[in-house]
Amino acid sequence: MASKTPQHCVVWFGRPSAGEVDGVAQAGWRVRVTDAQDGNGIGMRHGDIVVAIADLRRCDAEALPALRNLVADHPWLPWLLLMTDADQVQDPLVQPVLSACTASFTAPFEMKQLSTTLQAIREGRWAVMMPCVAGLTGRSPAIQLVMASILKYAPVDLPVLITGETGTGKELAACALHQQSSRRDRPFAAINCGALPLNLVQSELFGHERGSFTGANARHAGRFEAAAGGTVFLDEVGDLPAEAQTSLLRLLQEGTLERVGSTQPIRPDVRVLAATHVDLEKAVAQGRFREDLYYRLNVLRLRMPALREREDDMELLAQQFLEGFRAQHRCLARGFSRSALQAMRGFAWPGNVRELLNRVQRAAVLAEDALISVADLDLSATDPSPLAGLGRARVEVERETVVACLRASRFNISECARRLKVSRVTVYRLCKKHRLALAEMR
């Protein structure tokens, strides 16, 4: 007996309009509208391509816990989230749903946006859409956590301290926070504190009055004042000299600054984001950074993972960088050989995503075939960096920790999540990441 052709199915938990259902159906999807509380669940045949939509726009408060449980019980599915407004991400019941979703849409949105995402899922490109945060790409749990945190932090007008190794994309995260916030239409000023001349830091950041020092021939508005209404991103904030740290503390505490040579306070109304690759806690202990300023900056914290923690994203990022290069330059390369992909996974990437970008671009220039080779990337297929072993060791420790906790909690997912201080969704993701079959472990 011939098997049935797999169908493309959308299970819509909520109350969509007739036009929305028709729009998805016209795109070639079978649509089933249901309620998270009715107990029907997903209910599709094996082999179907299934997408689940969590529609919170007209969701009853009683339905949200049931929807959250459905998302936790089906972590392998691509979930799409529809919200009324950005404020919903602050709801503690919404946050677990948001962190598990492939993409989120805030009303009003165009059906074309939803159709584009569904098409990407149909074609196997759905990892590129996870979640909708401009400039950030990946399917790994580490980068998904970053994306979910950005969506939570962006609407809240508080300082964010972004940490991580050099080349992990801290400025990209800052841009994403700005673009997702209510300040998106106002200036975004990125300042590398380590690149500012020591004798001009105060003037550059906070401005100066005419005649305040030799060469000050006119009044100068500083970077904070010029970005009024928007966002200022202070990269390598740990390099700020003591005087500038004091001025920044005043701005964060009182919302005011004074130009060099003036006693007139100015209120620029800016949101401050800061980044560092150094240990600020150690800098505070050594007296190189003000403790009170550290606490003012560290209201919300966002850690950017190293590339070695994002093994699932390696091929996706490399191909994205190659496609970006091909869009601007003529080259033969269209993809990567199997040995090249293996070498990329075995390399430690001390320069992180920035190093991957540089190597891919160089390889695209050098490649004399459609597939980029190990030699093109200047990587060794047989002699990976010793640090790669450290990355694998961390993965093994994570796996052993999850296994031990599952056994200690007698495979109760909720209890395991409580002990690990993570969500149930995260436990399911870790099980999937480490290929842990719960039925076989019991």
Describe this structure in words.
It holds the Pfam family Sigma54_activat. One of its GO terms (biological process) is regulation of DNA-templated transcription. This protein has a five-stranded parallel sheet. With 442 residues, the chain is of the alpha/beta class. Helix 9 (242-254) crosses helix 11 (291-297), helix 16 (386-408) packs across helix 17 and helix 17 (413-420) packs across helix 18 (424-433). The protein folds into four domains: 8-123, Rossmann fold (3-Layer(aba) Sandwich); 141-303, P-loop containing nucleotide triphosphate hydrolases (Rossmann fold), CATH 3.40.50.300; 307-377, Helicase, Ruva Protein, domain 3, CATH 1.10.8; 386-434. It has 19 helices and twelve strands. It starts with 7 loop residues before the first strand and ends with a helix.
- The gyration radius over C-alpha positions equals 25 Å
CATH architectural category of the largest domain: 3-Layer(aba) Sandwich
% residues in beta strands: 5-15%
Assign the CATH class of the largest domain: Alpha Beta
Strands, helices and their partners?
Elements: E1 8-13, H1 18-26, E2 30-34, E3 49-55, H2 63-73, E4 79-83, H3 95-100, E5 103-106, H4 111-122, H5 141-153, E6 160-163, H6 170-179, E7 188-192, H7 201-206, H8 223-226, E8 231-235, H9 242-254, E9 271-276, H10 280-285, H11 291-297, E10 300-303, H12 314-328, E11 335-336, H13 338-346, H14 352-366, E12 371-372, H15 374-377, H16 386-408, H17 413-420, H18 424-433, H19 438-441
Parallel strand pairs: 1-2, 1-3, 3-4, 4-5, 6-9, 6-10, 7-8, 8-9, 11-12
Helix pairs in contact: 9-11, 12-14, 16-17, 17-18
